[in-house]
Amino acid sequence: MASATNYTYEHFNITFPSPYVAQVEINRPKKLNAFIEQMWTDLGAIFRALSVDPDVRAVILTAAGDRAFSSGLDVQAASQNGVLAQQTEHADPARKALSIRRHILEFQRDISAIEECEKPVIAVMHGISYGLAIDMTVCCDIRICAEDTRFSVREVDIGLAADIGTLTRLPKANVPLSWVKEVCLTARDFDAAEALRVGFVSGVCESKSAALKKALEMATLLASKSPVAVQSTKQILNYSRDHSVADGLNQIALLNSAMLQTKDVEAAMLSGLKKRKPTFAKL
């Protein structure tokens, strides 16, 4: 089985609370789990590794501490060393723009690694969940939260448009576009009840611990199913979100022309007939 020793990062705790289930915990609670530059790079590396780890079939994304899932970008650190810092080495605006663009694209790739992870990812949010918290969790397949969660697409309040994914993915998250524009343009807070009402989250629990328990139950259930079936389903759902119905139907036909040859189908059918729990080989 997967080992935490293979996943050692300063600001992330990687554990394996159930067979084939990985839990990624953002671990900078004294700074409200705000992100510094190294954390972006590490997060991308973690999810790219989990994506191909044969001992992982489902992932939970959560955060340490009681106050915040993440307050977003560590603005103070970024203003001293990062894309927000004054860059005197490029006096030419075009060259400076190219440098900033490369920087943004690198950060986008690291956050997109969550969405591109072959395994289903369940986000568990609590407390302050601002800015980058939305960027990360809108990449996840399933989102649940605690009752105390406070959300905000915060970027306009620091003088910029969100550029890591929220403005691109939130309009495709099956929530009302008028609501999306309102929260993105005003940067206002919204609570767990509102997030559930509009469909941004699929469940609200009374506490962080209760939300984690629910996520673990869900992840354990996912991990018990055929990894071929689960990963293929995630792939087609994401593909169909971004393509026409005809394209989606053609894609699943192409995919299943290979995947239907798996032994997992036989194992699942026989287990139903014999009333026993099926076991599936690693991918």
From TrEMBL:
Record-linked Pfam families: ECH_1
BP GO terms, sorted: fatty acid metabolic process
A Gene Ontology cellular-component term: peroxisome
Gene3D superfamilies: 2-enoyl-CoA Hydratase, Chain A, domain 1 (3.90.226.10), Lyase 2-enoyl-coa Hydratase, Chain A, domain 2 (1.10.12.10)
Localization (cell): Peroxisome
Main location: other
MF annotations from Gene Ontology: delta(3,5)-delta(2,4)-dienoyl-CoA isomerase activity
Keyword vocabulary terms for this entry: Acetylation, Fatty acid metabolism, Isomerase, Lipid metabolism, Peroxisome, Virulence
CDD domains according to UniProt: crotonase-like
Protein family membership: Belongs to the enoyl-CoA hydratase/isomerase family.
Pathway: Lipid metabolism; fatty acid beta-oxidation
Superkingdom to which the source organism belongs: Eukaryota
Protein's name according to its UniProt entry: Enoyl-CoA hydratase
InterPro entries on file: ClpP/crotonase-like_dom_sf, Ech1-like, Enoyl-CoA_hydra/iso, Enoyl-CoA_hydra_C
